[in-house]
Amino acid sequence: MSSPPIARKGIRRGGEQYEAIHEALAASALQALATDGYDGVTHAAVAESAGVSERTAFRHYPTKVELAVAGIKQLPTYDGWLEGPGSCAERFRRGLAIGAQHPELIVPVIAACIAQRNLEPELLHAVREHVLVPRRESMRTFVEEGRRTGELRETLTAEAMAALDLGLFFQSAAGMFPLGRGRARVDRLFGEAWPLVAAPGHEDD
Fold this sequence. Notes:
mainly alpha; Arc Repressor Mutant, subunit A; 9 helices; 62% helix; 0% strand; elongated
């Protein structure tokens, strides 16, 4: 009589290893979307980049859209970047310094999602709801506090600040406004954006 097969312990859904693979696949999907557009977000390519099997990628994200949306959700939302102690200028510069640690992927990702807006509208919806709206709301709190303390222009709105933020990244992606890296990037962005949002008398803060 043959012995019963040994039950092999798989990766538990929700466990630490599962979550690590889940995030690695999402990060790889984001890079693929930014580099090669939606066509480049294949389970095979993303799995290879994440160091797992294609079958594993399908188990985590059964469809291509789910894989791409998972990647989009990896983009930073600015949550907490503008909070904390210090003047508005100090917090603004601190937020830029945090941002300098992240690659500039927002513009190519938006471009890829706009290109697919008729075939896969869920992609652009994910960008709006999981990235752009949270970023704007983070800025809204910052703007309201800054207007209350008199450090930011009375006419400044969260929408205007969000437009300025995204506009600078679009110019950078088009080669019109090179941001540089690290401290140089922070100084360039601060020097360009702060005078446009600061209240009169606070431009040199």
